[in-house]
């Protein structure tokens, strides 16, 4: 157990650190929900890390080999498995595997160009025969589609003068002329006549892209510009909330993602003592994220004819696919470094790492992907999108990114992948020098015999 913790402790700590950083970066979000979610998830991962480094080793130490009961397969190293064959193939043709895996993820990433955010979580999730959906369709037959959830506009006096009926009526006419507005009800004035309230019914469903564009590009700008002197106009309501959420999410993508990526790269650099490896490891994670978003867009928007994907789906994918994808990469590249330190050449190290780490990464990926895949059985399009994207993203991260792309690319880059720290050499400097064929001589003991493995 001491040997096991010594070998994997650094990798587990680094993997947990990457996830903690990814979650903690959500504190930079402009949405309160994400700001509160980030620290909670980060604390949970930190406590799990402590348990993994202390409680689990203690319990296993007490149980001894009984932890493997009733199997005795732990006594023998597995031979001829599918992971061994995959590792051998990657070692022989790393360029082929790197190109094929990159093209596969890159092709799926192109599907992300068609991504559209969908805010109509109720209408797109419920079956068409539900009473609420039937009532909504009946209402839209005789009235503007926005009648189900009108937009509110408030004209408030910013001076001591009250809002007059004449100015309130003139402002109503300007609102009614906005393209995309179906009708505007007569203004209601509060008792002090300091605020006039307008119920604006849009021509399109409140959560549709057209309704959001009407509020964002036409209704709000006009209301602000046409507000009478000595007053200001504010646009609220559900559609306006969606516009603000969309703007906040776009802002978070440009702030949270880069900060988290930079922090994760720092962790990778410290773990690997390298300035090269973190770059292509994060490239692989980005490809995995893009492939997941692209595949989900193709399945649900193109094939399934959904109006779009749940607006929070990219953030949820970030939480699980990016963070866990980085974890799988850390586990694989840590084993790659370990094999290189044992004296193996870059290709041999990649093949051996896939052989030994493949079962662990594969098992973790299958369990987690299967767990999320059960969400697709809920009969709800929102949960189906979430279940598919998370399960598919984890499969991509485990079986394509970490198990193929990362080891194949590391084998191609070779010793330069560890620059400038030379993390593939033994810490005491006794690592074997590369042979002319790219392999490394097996380290020798003091008596001249090969070092036992």
Give the helices and strands, then pairings:
Elements: H1 2-24, H2 32-63, H3 82-92, H4 94-109, E1 117-118, H5 131-142, E2 151-157, H6 165-176, E3 181-184, E4 188-189, E5 195-202, H7 209-226, E6 231-236, H8 238-272, H9 277-303, E7 309-310, H10 313-341, H11 346-373, H12 381-413
Helix pairs in contact: 1-2, 1-8, 1-10, 3-4, 3-11, 4-9, 4-12, 7-8, 8-9, 8-10, 9-10, 9-12, 10-11, 10-12, 11-12
Radius of gyration: 29 Å
- Structural class designation: alpha+beta
Distance between the termini: 17 Å
Can you count the helices? 12
* Count of extended strands: 7
Oligomer: single chain
Main sheet makeup? 5 strands, antiparallel
Shape: elongated
Classify the helix fraction into a percent range: 55-70%
Order of helices and strands: HHHHEHEHEEEHEHHEHHH
Strand content is 5-15%
Low-confidence stretches: 429-453
Look at the structure and give the mean pLDDT.
84
What characteristics describe this protein?
alpha+beta; single chain; about 450 residues; elongated; about 60% helix
Structure description:
- This protein is of the alpha+beta class.
- 61% of the residues lie in helices and 7% in strands.
- It has twelve helices and seven strands.
- The strands form two sheets. Strands 2, 3, 4, 5 and 6 form a five-stranded antiparallel beta sheet that branches. Strands 1-7 form a two-stranded parallel sheet.
- Strand 4 (188-189) and strand 5 form a beta hairpin.
- It starts with a helix and ends in a 40-residue tail after the last helix.
